[in-house]
Design goal:
The protein folds into 2 domains: 116 residues, Aspartate Aminotransferase, domain 1 (Alpha-Beta Complex); 243 residues, Type I PLP-dependent aspartate aminotransferase-like (Major domain) (Aspartate Aminotransferase, domain 2). Helices cover 40% and strands 15% of the residues. Helix 7 links the parallel strand 7 and strand 8. By secondary structure, it is α/β, with parallel strands linked by helices. It has a 7-stranded mixed β-sheet, sandwiched between helices. It binds pyridoxal-5'-phosphate.
């Protein structure tokens, strides 16, 4: 098997800004200081210190008050994705609205719960709301309204786009019309590079049906397995009642709470500056190598670039050729809610070195040119 030297596949954080010494020092402190808590089960909400810091993170970003007792720590935000769906679903076959391209972990969880996914097309402003309104009207008329709407509103995975505030307000309106909860997954919200930041749905609407998910995986490290779910009562109790895991890892939470005792801002600012350089390198590489053939997103945050491929590229051959030369990425098919073999690929750049990016993009371009079945000019201008 070929060694993968250029892994544009996995959406990991940046190892270069992982604070080894600071976390080591924090661990030494908290193991002694919090020995009593470590000798106990954490229960439903989890480590109070980290909950307070995360509530503060949300309050500051959104300019609203977030109660730490409305926030439950989870085993990564992936556990929160599953817990929210299990709570809102009554039976296999229930419907859920998703973006046509979405996070494969969520799609896998929904498939395994046998939720019936209804995909809504995306554009540069996220979920297309005319299409959503039309689809819900149709489902309502057929008495088949879904149980909830799942959306990644900010730095969407895989496209990187942000839903503007006006669209968020309209989404809230549409959801209210059909009394639907919105599950907002904001796990990239603080991986911000430039431009305005849009408010979260929970900050725009205090409807107690809505559920908000966030994570520490993207600002610190996925191996910590720390995420959280934010919901108002009684939805919070419904979520906690579904939980049978005795709570999330106290040691990880205590270490991270000590590390972030003055808030997340300084480490996040430093981390995002390093990530922005990598994003720019990918964009520059694509511009130099593939401007005649492909179209791609220019995200103002998050860890991914979504690339549209010409139809005349053999997508299976492209992936095999890249892997045989030591490069990988995630093909569009894994992001499609019905696994359609769409002509896209996603490039993740957070964990690669600058050198890997600078060498990897020309290699990808070379493979792509070798997998074309014609010399036709590109037949599209836009990403969608
Ligand atoms: C949109 C989205 N939600 C949730 C997750 C899960 O992240 P974690 O469980 O590490 O917090 C990811 C990871 O890539 C993601 O992209």
């Amino acid at each position: 098997m070929t060694d993968i030297r250029y892994d544009f596949g996995s959406g990991r954080s940046n190892p270069e800004t992982f604070p080894v010494a600071e976390l080591q020092a924090a661990a030494v402190k908290v193991i002694e200081r919090e020995a009593d808590a470590l000798n106990n089960y954490p229960g439903g909400l989890g480590h109070a210190g980290l909950r307070k810091i995360m509530a503060d993170r949300e309050s500051r970003r959104e300019g609203v008050t977030v109660d730490p007792d409305h926030l439950a720590l989870t085993n990564g935000s992936m556990q929160a994705v599953t817990l929210a769906a299990e709570t809102l679903q009554d039976a296999p076959g229930d419907g859920v609205i998703v973006e046509e391209f979405s996070y494969p972990g969520t799609l896998a969880a929904y498939r395994s719960l046998k939720l019936d996914m209804v995909g809504i097309p995306l554009d540069e402003e996220g979920m297309q709301l005319d299409a959503l309104a039309e689809k819900l009207e149709e489902l309502n008329a057929a008495n088949r309204l879904p149980k909830f709407i799942y959306t990644i509103t900010t730095y969407q995975n895989p496209t990187g786009f942000v839903m503007p505030k006006a669209n968020r307000l309209r989404l809230i309106d549409i959801a209210r019309r059909y009394e639907l909860p919105i599950v907002e997954d904001n796990c990239y919200g603080d991986v911000h590079y430039e431009g305005p930041e849009e408010p979260a749905i929970y900050a725009l609407d205090d409807d107690p049906r809505h559920i908000y998910l966030c994570s520490l995986s993207k600002i610190l490290a996925p191996g910590l397995r720390l995420g959280y779910i934010l919901a108002r009562p009684p939805m919070l109790e419904r979520l906690l009642n579904r939980r049978n895991d005795a709570g999330s890892n106290t040691l990880a939470a205590a270490i991270v709470a000590e590390f972030y005792k003055d808030g997340i801002a300084s480490h996040t600012k430093f981390g995002n500056a390093a990530l922005k350089i990598k994003r720019d390198l990918v964009l520059e590489g694509l511009e130099n190598e593939l401007a005649d053939l492909c179209v791609w997103s220019r995200p103002v945050g998050g860890l991914f670039i979504w690339v549209r491929l010409p139809e005349d590229v053999d997508r299976k051959q492209l992936h095999e050729l890249c892997v045989s030369r030591g490069l990988t990425y995630l093909p569009g098919v894994v992001f499609h809610y019905q696994n359609a073999n769409v002509p896209y690929l996603r490039l993740a750049f957070g964990h690669l070195t600058q050198e890997q990016i600078s060498n990897g993009i020309p290699l990808l371009a070379q493979c792509l040119r070798e997998c074309r079945t014609s010399n036709e000019a590109r037949s599209f201008e836009g990403l969608f």
